[in-house]
TrEMBL record:
<feature type="binding site">
    <location>
        <position position="192"/>
    </location>
    <ligand>
        <name>S-adenosyl-L-methionine</name>
    </ligand>
</feature>
<feature type="binding site">
    <location>
        <position position="125"/>
    </location>
    <ligand>
        <name>S-adenosyl-L-methionine</name>
    </ligand>
</feature>
<keyword id="KW-0949">S-adenosyl-L-methionine</keyword>
<dbReference type="InterPro" id="IPR005271">
    <property type="entry name" value="CmoA"/>
</dbReference>
<feature type="binding site">
    <location>
        <position position="35"/>
    </location>
    <ligand>
        <name>S-adenosyl-L-methionine</name>
    </ligand>
</feature>
<dbReference type="GO" id="GO:1904047">
    <property type="term" value="F:S-adenosyl-L-methionine binding"/>
</dbReference>
<protein>
    <recommendedName>
        <fullName>Carboxy-S-adenosyl-L-methionine synthase</fullName>
        <ecNumber>2.1.3.-</ecNumber>
    </recommendedName>
</protein>
<dbReference type="Pfam" id="PF13649">
    <property type="entry name" value="Methyltransf_25"/>
</dbReference>
<comment type="similarity">
    <text>Belongs to the class I-like SAM-binding methyltransferase superfamily. Cx-SAM synthase family.</text>
</comment>
<feature type="binding site">
    <location>
        <begin position="60"/>
        <end position="62"/>
    </location>
    <ligand>
        <name>S-adenosyl-L-methionine</name>
    </ligand>
</feature>
<feature type="binding site">
    <location>
        <begin position="110"/>
        <end position="111"/>
    </location>
    <ligand>
        <name>S-adenosyl-L-methionine</name>
    </ligand>
</feature>
<dbReference type="InterPro" id="IPR041698">
    <property type="entry name" value="Methyltransf_25"/>
</dbReference>
<feature type="domain" description="Methyltransferase">
    <location>
        <begin position="56"/>
        <end position="151"/>
    </location>
</feature>
<feature type="binding site">
    <location>
        <begin position="84"/>
        <end position="85"/>
    </location>
    <ligand>
        <name>S-adenosyl-L-methionine</name>
    </ligand>
</feature>
<keyword id="KW-0808">Transferase</keyword>
<dbReference type="GO" id="GO:0002098">
    <property type="term" value="P:tRNA wobble uridine modification"/>
</dbReference>
<comment type="function">
    <text>Catalyzes the conversion of S-adenosyl-L-methionine (SAM) to carboxy-S-adenosyl-L-methionine (Cx-SAM).</text>
</comment>
Length: 235
């Protein structure tokens, strides 16, 4: 379905409810620059660290696209676990996984309540930015502790710039991108208002410091478009 969630006046803050879930794949493709390319890169890097029986977690898995694509591309038999606190998202994830013949354990839970065990790869695609900063650092430490030595945390995030002038340019460039994807000025402004105080982005340096503070020995930016970036952190 085509994303028309914000073509009307909003009445609440952004949430991953049934209305958003029904159009989420289209929303991602049209709202996140180079989303599919970053997803493909994530999967390519992940495959370099995997082996038969590896545990792979996707935190905030939404409709499970990343895990499904990983399963389709990997030569290994993997234990795939998708975690999300939106039942509407997980219902679609379950249907998609079944359609593609991919076995995924889908958990409707708060990430902090799930016991992550012996992970080889942990994905988090535009999830950390929705977690309050104090809890964000705790979650990254939990991810670090869950990974086997040599395991990787692969995550994508929206960014802000420390430079206010550049940050304004970042926003303008991003809104220009959204207009090319068919979103109107009204839809763009409505979504921005809905996300106010819900999505809290860090700078690129703040993301890397958070990773290093958790104990990871290396963190690299492997793709960046203006204010969107893909990172890989190695334990």
């Amino acid at each position: 379905m085509i994303d028309k969630v914000f073509n009307k006046t909003i009445s609440k803050q952004f949430e991953f409810d049934e209305e958003v879930a029904s159009v989420f794949d289209d929303m991602l493709d049209r709202s996140v620059p180079f989303y599919k390319q970053m997803q493909k890169l994530s999967i390519s890097f992940a495959n370099n660290f995997l082996e038969d029986g590896s545990n792979v977690y996707d935190l905030g898995c939404s409709t499970a696209s990343t895990l499904i694509e990983l399963s389709k591309s990997s030569k290994y038999n993997l234990n795939l676990v998708g975690i999300d606190n939106s039942n509407a998202m997980l219902e679609r994830a379950s249907k998609k996984a079944k359609a593609f013949g991919v076995e995924i354990k889908l958990l409707n839970a708060d990430i902090f309540d799930v016991d992550l065990k012996d992970a080889k790869v942990v994905f988090s695609n535009y999830t950390l930015q929705f977690i309050r900063p104090l809890n964000r650092e705790k979650l990254v430490k939990k991810i670090y502790d869950s990974l086997e030595d040599g395991g990787v945390f692969i995550f994508s995030e929206k960014l802000v710039s420390k430079n206010s002038f550049l940050n304004k340019q970042f926003i303008d460039e991003y809104y220009s991108f959204k207009k090319t994807q068919g979103y109107s000025e009204f839809e763009i402004s409505q979504k921005r208002e809905a996300l106010e105080n819900v999505l809290i982005p860090y700078t690129e340096d703040e993301n890397k410091k958070m990773i290093e503070d958790a104990g990871f020995k290396h963190c690299e930016t492997v793709f960046k478009w203006v204010n969107f970036a893909l990172f890989i952190a190695i334990k």
